[in-house]
Design brief:
The chain is of the alpha/beta class. The protein folds into 3 domains: 145 residues, Rossmann fold; 58 residues, Histone, subunit A (Orthogonal Bundle), CATH 1.10.20; 72 residues, Crystal structure of tRNA isopentenylpyrophosphate transferase (bh2366) domain (Helix Hairpins). 49% of the residues lie in helices and 9% in strands. A 6-stranded parallel sheet has the order 3-2-4-1-5-6. Helix 2 links the parallel strand 2 and strand 3. Helix 3 crosses helix 4.
Length: 300
Amino acid sequence: MEHVLQRQDISALLIAGPTASGKSALALELARDLGGEIVNADSMQVYSVLDRLTARPGAADLDVVAHHLYGHVAPATAYSTGIWLDQATEAIAAIRARGALPVVVGGTGLYFRALTGGLSQMPEIPDALRTQLRARLESEGVETLHGELARLDPKMAQRLRPADRQRILRALEVVRATGRSILEFQGRGGAQIVDPLTARCMVLEPDRALLHARINTRFANMVEEGAIDEVKQLISQNVPPPHPAMKAIGVSQIAGYLAGRHSLDEAIALASAATRQYAKRQMTWFRNQLDERWEKYNHK
């Protein structure tokens, strides 16, 4: 890759992209060449146990440059964009204090939005309430929770599709925790930790056929490298099914294989299909949510 970046010209380097797009390799290359340290911006790579299943950087990569916020959260721990932003803020400040360049890389769009000041300031949600509502979402269904939201926050309920699980859950968490509509909190921008005008912002847009080919081979490689043992370990910790760590692609498919519901080949095929669908959703989000300051890049 030909580098057009000059270290002195930028305050940070942000690299977003869908899963399996090669963003981690690009971040490693640029961090090495520009004297940077890498900060994770992927909501699944924060969890311990899920090493191979979330494609976290390996030991060889960690030896090249320093990496931060990878695998530091226990799977049963409640984790949020707000917590990540606090930790990322500390990591970036420490990186800058060492005279290094912060290189933030990942596929979670809300993390980048929060980092650049575009995320509304939301109230803290008690862990017990969050766990309770997630369990109810699984046991009672999204229609029941949407009905409760309609009673407590009718304006927000009208804005949401009755099948929009995550937004209904989030709106219900807020109104149950505060007695106020989430609409009151939205629109209040947060602090700008990274100024996108002085940072270099890149979003990877890989060729669709190439991306699918990578995805189709990657999960089989994950299985060979120990993903089954990771799922066994996760299951042994009795993490509640609604918890985000249990939603990592590959967990339910491998769990189904371990329970005898399908073969290993079927589990690999199902997980690969789910990964392709997830990558499509990521690319749609980036395309619709990131502005012109984000440079589109096709990394091969």
